Amino acid sequence: MALLITKDCVCCDACREECPDEAIYEYNPIYVIDADLCSECVNDFSEPACIVACPYECIIPDPDNIESIEELKLKNRRNKDL
């Protein structure tokens, strides 16, 4: 599943700079994660880089975008080809 930034976001930019998929962007008043791009860092890191980088712990799994590991791996490969 893709990830979701909660309303607790303060737009500190920590997560956006760490995202290898470039899936995080500012959407006033908080940042959002593009579910079509987010691969949860599968094949890149052992856990999502944005979650590790977020000092406010406001990034959670998005229950509206459930994907299997295989789907995330395919998305990760597609992102690398862009």
Question: Can you tell me about this structure?
Answer:
With 82 residues, the chain is an alpha+beta fold. 28% of the residues lie in helices and 17% in strands. The chain has a single domain (3-74), classed as Alpha-Beta Plaits (2-Layer Sandwich), CATH 3.30.70. It has 3 helices and 4 strands. The strands form 2 sheets. A two-stranded antiparallel sheet has the order 1-4. A hairpin with a 2-residue loop joins β2 and β3. The longest helix has 13 residues, at 69-81.
Can I get a quick summary?
With 82 residues, this protein is α+β, with helices and mostly antiparallel strands. It has 3 helices and 4 strands; from the N terminus they run βαββαβα.
Number of helices, counting only DSSP H or I runs of 4 residues or more: 3
Give a quick account of the main beta sheet: strands, pairing sense, barrel closure: 2 strands, antiparallel
- What integer value in Å does the Rg equal? 12 Å
CATH class: Alpha Beta
**According to CATH, what is the topology?**
Alpha-Beta Plaits
CATH architecture assignment name:
2-Layer Sandwich
Instruction: Tell me the number of structural domains.
Output: 1
Shape designation: globular
Keywords: Iron, Iron-sulfur, Metal-binding
InterPro entries: 4Fe4S_Fe-S-bd, 4Fe4S_Fe_S_CS, YfhL-like
Domain 4Fe-4S ferredoxin-type: 1-30
Protein name: Ferredoxin
